[in-house]
Please model this.
Amino acid sequence: MDSRYLKKQAAQIRKSILTAVYYAKSGHPGGSLSAADLFTYLYFEEMNLEPRRPDWEERDRFVLSKGHVAPGLYAALAHRGYFPVEALKNLRQLGFYLQGHPDMKHIPGVDMSCGSLGQGASAAAGMALAGKLDRKGYRVYALYGDGELQEGQIWEAAMFAGANRLDNLCVIVDNNNLQIDGTLEEVCSPYPIADKFRAFNFNVEEIDGHNFEEMKEAFERARKSGGKPTAIIARTVKGKGVSFMEGQASWHGKAPDREEYERAMEELERTDSGNE
Model:
C-alpha cells in the first residue's frame, strides 16, 4: 500500500465530487466527502475488480446503501476507469446515466440500485449468502450512513448476516455524526454502534475513516474474521477536505455556488499538491 498514492487519489475524488455537484446544482457533498477516503481505499486497494469487465463473475461486490452519496461512488468509479471522468459533469442531467442514486442497469460498476435507506443492507447480505451457496470467493462490501442506522432494516439484515455467519460480508459505517437535521444525538441516537453490531455476532473494527493505515489493518482482520461478518465503524468528518464544509450539517444536501466551488477547489488543489 502506497499511502501517498491513495492520498492523491482521494484528493482527485474529492475534486470530482465537488465538480459533479456544482454542475448539477444539486446533490449531497457532505457525506460524499466524508466517505471519499473510504471509497478510495476500497476501489484502489481493497476490492478485487476489473473495470474493463464490470460484470466479471469473480469480482468483489459493493453496495452503496446510503445511495444519496452517489457523487462519491461515481467519482471513485470514474477515476478507477469504469467511465470517463468528464461524465461526472452530467450528474443528474435529464436522460444521462449518472442520476441522483446509483442505477445498476445503466452505470458500469454499480452492483445494486439504492435509494431508500436501509435496503442496501439486505441486498448486501443476500449477495454474501449467494456467494456462500455458490462457493464463490468474492467478498461483499456495503457502506452505510450513521443516520441510516435509524432504519430498522439495517438491524434485520445484521441479524440475518450474523445468524448465517457471513464472513464474506464487510459493512462500513461512515460515522460522521451528522445527518440532514443535525447530530445523531439530536435526531435519534443509534449509539453505541459497535456494541449493537457485536450483539448480532459481528466482528467489529473501530477506525479513523481518514487513516489509510488503520483501514488496511481493519480490512485485513475482516478477512480473518472466522465465521463472522465484519462491521468497520469509521469515524469521519462531514465535508472532509473543504474547510467551510467540515462538520456542517448544512452541507448534507446543498450544492456550492461558483465562489464556494472555486474556493473549495483551491483548497483541494493545495492538498493534492502536498502543500497542506
